[in-house]
Specification:
Elements (H helix, E strand, L loop, with lengths): L1 H7 L5 E2 L5 H5 L1 H6 L4 E2 L3 H8 L1 H11 L6 E3 L3 H11 L3 E5 L9 E3 L2 H14 L5 E5 L5 E10 L2 E13 L9 E3 L6 H17 L4 E10 L2 E8 L6 H8 L3 H9 L16 E7 L20 E7 L2 H11 L8 E6 L2 H16 L3 E5 H9 L5 E3 L9 H7 L1 H6 L5 E5 L14 H11 L4 E2 L2 H13 L22 E8 L4 H15 L1 E8 L6 H14 L3 E5 L8
Parallel strand pairs: 1-2, 14-15, 14-17, 15-16, 17-18, 19-20, 20-21
Antiparallel strand pairs: 3-6, 4-5, 4-6, 7-8, 7-10, 8-9, 9-12, 10-11, 12-13
Helix pairs in contact: 4-5, 6-7, 11-17, 12-17, 18-19
Length: about 550
């Protein structure tokens, strides 16, 4: 138990905000057991984690949020959903990675999802809120001291709201946010931090649509994006948060956003190891890792990030399948761009009809299940054959929102084709925003040479031409001959720099100057001269 370790070590305090969701879940029990919590008061952590308390707080502050209601009965939930209209988001309290969080599109699904949410979090309230479609999601990572904002960083998601932040593609600095939107986000962050009296790190997720912002949730802890944004802006937010919680002085100014580069964080999935899992993104987290890369712009950074996950860019054949009419319209310019780039385009039946009507020639493929058909004819039009034989090098599958719940045993044609792509190791993109970003990146063919913007470290990195001989002691009076032999030996061993200490009875200022002059004239490598410090030469 945490309490056992705390008592055994006679700890002076406990930091909760660096360990993810679990420490926040036990914050109040630890606090009530007499543990000294460093940072934000656990009562305030509970105020942020408890959906009902947090939503009430936002209403009091006048900070906008999607319309919401605490779950008390199915009848109340039904009336609320009928009032605000579907879809709605069902959210339990104190959960990680969107567990039991669901977007509900129909009345028939509401009772099922509510029972699931209550089962996950019986002790804490479940809140139903209006789900805003086609909205951009924005991350705010911040550090505060006694409720006063010390530092903040804003990042934007590529995908629209509805994709878990752990699965989302993150861009830093943001590329598509209006200044007035940024100002509103910073203002809301200040208000929330002050109301919760935050001391340490906190993360707020916003959605923005038509320059209006709404708060989704607040986590009074370091989020998974803290290391990413710290690396991008060159400020260690964990170090800053720790100093604030330890009541140490901090002297830091909000830096200007980087202008020479953009960083993109790309999720890493393991669907190929999860037999039968549908490789689509939603409000519950599915990724198993993440990779971040730098680039001169978001397109280059995103392309590098995908390559780092093992993604193989297509060279010739691309298959496209889009469920909704709106999705087909949105992807139409990208489809034209792919055709201009010279790719062979394949599409499923409905998608092929749409793009053919808009003047884009595509080859039609379909899931053919009739085994009695002519084999050659089947292979020509069979989606299964093209995927199994690795004819397709990239599959862009953009499913429509599943507004009608199907039996668990039902397998849609879209699911079957996506699963085949994963099982045959064919690169798969299932989000329209990511698909558009990838096509644009592909059309620009980013320069993949390694440049100085491709890495950042907490320390200054110096590239040296060779090894360094840390120390060498030279004996004898003829330091010129000794130094010549030493430097030639260094060159043979791959050393290009050396530190030299000469053994001499008298080492004063005159001797030091002589040693430097001799070294300059007889050394074949870079050198540093060391001498003894005694009373006569200080």
């Amino acid at each position: 138990r945490v309490l056992d370790i705390y008592e055994l070590e006679h700890s002076e305090g406990l930091i909760l905000s660096m360990g993810g969701q679990t420490p926040n879940n036990i914050a109040l029990p630890l606090y009530r057991s007499g543990v000294k919590i460093l940072g934000t008061n656990p009562d305030m952590i509970d105020r942020a984690e408890n959906r009902y308390k947090f939503s009430r707080m936002l209403d009091t502050l006048g900070v906008d949020q999607p319309r919401w209601k605490e779950l008390t009965s199915l009848e109340d939930a039904t009336n609320f959903c009928n009032d605000v209209g579907f879809p709605v988001l069902v959210r339990p309290s104190y959960v990680l990675s969107g567990a039991a969080m669901n977007v509900v599109f129909t009345q028939d699904d509401l009772s099922n999802f509510l029972s699931q949410a209550v089962a996950v979090s019986r002790e804490f309230p479940v809140v139903i809120s209006k789900f805003i479609e086609e909205a951009k999601e924005i991350e705010m990572d911040a550090v505060a001291r006694d409720g006063e904002l010390v530092f903040h960083v804003i990042s934007e998601h590529v995908e629209n709201a509805g994709v878990h932040s752990g699965d989302a593609t993150l861009i830093q600095p943001p590329q598509d946010l209006a200044p007035q939107t940024v100002a509103k986000i910073v203002s809301a962050t200040r208000q929330i931090g002050k109301s919760l009296n935050v001391t340490g790190p906190y993360n707020i997720q916003f959605i923005a649509k038509n320059n209006e912002i709404k708060v989704i949730e607040c986590n009074v802890r370091a989020s998974r994006s803290f290391p990413f944004v710290s690396k991008v802006i060159g400020v260690d937010l964990i170090e800053l948060s720790t100093k604030v919680m330890m009541d140490m002085p901090v002297d830091i100014n909000q830096p200007a956003l980087p202008s020479q580069y953009v960083a993109v964080k790309v999720p890493q999935f393991s669907f190929n190891r999860l037999s039968g899992a549908d490789p689509v993104l939603g409000v519950e987290m599915a990724s198993t890792g993440e990779i971040a890369c730098f680039g001169r712009d978001r397109f280059e950074a995103y392309f590098k990030g995908l390559l780092a996950t093992g993604f193989k860019p297509p060279k010739k054949n691309i298959l496209v399948s889009i469920g909704s009419y709106k999705g087909k319209q949105e992807f139409l310019p990208s489809m034209r761009k792919l055709k201009t780039l010279g790719f062979n385009l394949f599409a499923t039946t409905g998608t092929a009809d749409f793009f053919s009507e808009h003047g884009i020639a595509v080859h039609t493929l379909d899931l053919l299940d009739n085994q009695d058909e002519d084999i050659q004819l089947k292979n020509k039009y069979s989606l299964q054959h093209h995927l199994a034989q690795n004819v397709i090098e990239l599959y862009i599958n953009l499913p429509s929102n599943n507004k009608y719940r199907r039996p668990a045993s039902y397998m849609s044609r879209g699911y079957r084709s996506r699963r085949m792509a994963v099982d045959f190791s064919i690169p798969l993109i299932t989000n329209v925003k990511c698909a558009k970003l990838f096509v644009e990146a592909l059309s620009r063919m980013p320069d993949m040479r390694i440049r100085n913007i491709d890495w950042k470290s907490a320390y200054q990195t110096v590239q040296l031409p060779g090894l360094i001989n840390v120390h060498a002691l030279l004996k004898g009076d003829n330091i010129a001959i000794s130094l010549g032999k030493l430097s030639r030996a260094c060159i043979k061993g791959g050393f290009t720099s050396t530190t030299v200490t000469f053994e001499a009875f008298k080492q004063d200022r005159v001797w030091l100057q002589k040693a430097i002059d001799v070294s300059r004239s007889h050394s074949y490598v870079d050198f540093a001269v060391a001498m003894k410090t005694v009373a006569s030469n200080v």
